[in-house]
Amino acid sequence: MLIGLIIACEIGFWIVLLSGLLVRYYFRQAKASTILLLCVPLLDIILLVAAGVDLYKGAVADFSHGLAAAYLGFTLAFGPSVIQWADQRFAYKFANGPQPWRPPTEGRALTLYEWKQWRKGLVACSIASAILFGGILLVDDPEKSKELAEWIPSLGGLLIVWLFCWPLWYTVFPKK
């Protein structure tokens, strides 16, 4: 059930985002667009509450609860930049806005960009870990919350791999 809700939240994110931007730039309705775009965080709240209620009612934490925490962490950390990315493209396409910003592809600028992305990943994993700790405290049973605790080192491992594959790599071997 929770996996389906995570998928629904991801689909809902894109539907609400695209609807909000279409209303803003194609139909020129700024207030309606703002209202639609303010619904984006509601999807995260719905997922957080659903996972929390499921655990509170006595469910044994499983993969889906950990995935929900990771999803929430990453949407909170990367969501604003994804919205900005989409907004720039809609402004360019429908409102004669400037050419959308593109990430750098070489040199020091690429290295700095990769470090910024990794910092966002660090924030995402920190948020996810805080949610996982909250779930562990909510369940208050080490056997039932074991799966949540196992997610935390996995998030740390993800950060370490990410660190070595991109920001450190481009720091040591800058792309020219």
Describe the secondary structure blueprint for this structure.
Blueprint: H1 2-25, H2 30-38, H3 40-56, H4 63-94, H5 107-139, H6 146-165, H7 167-172
Helix pairs in contact: 1-2, 1-3, 1-4, 3-4, 4-5, 4-6, 5-6
Low-confidence stretches: none
Encode the helix/strand succession as letters: HHHHHHH
Helical proportion, percent range? over 70%
- Integer average pLDDT: 97
Calculate Rg over CA atoms.
Answer: 19 Å
Oligomer: single chain
Q: Please state the structural category.
A: mainly alpha
Number of domains: 1
| DSSP strand tally | 0
**What is the count of helical runs?**
7
CA-based shape: flat
Q: Major β-sheet, in short?
A: none
Question: How far apart are the termini?
Answer: 48 Å
Give the percentage of residues in beta strands. under 5%
Summary of the model, kept short:
The chain is built from seven helices and no strands. The protein has helices spanning 2-25, 30-38, 40-56, 63-94, 107-139, 146-165, 167-172.
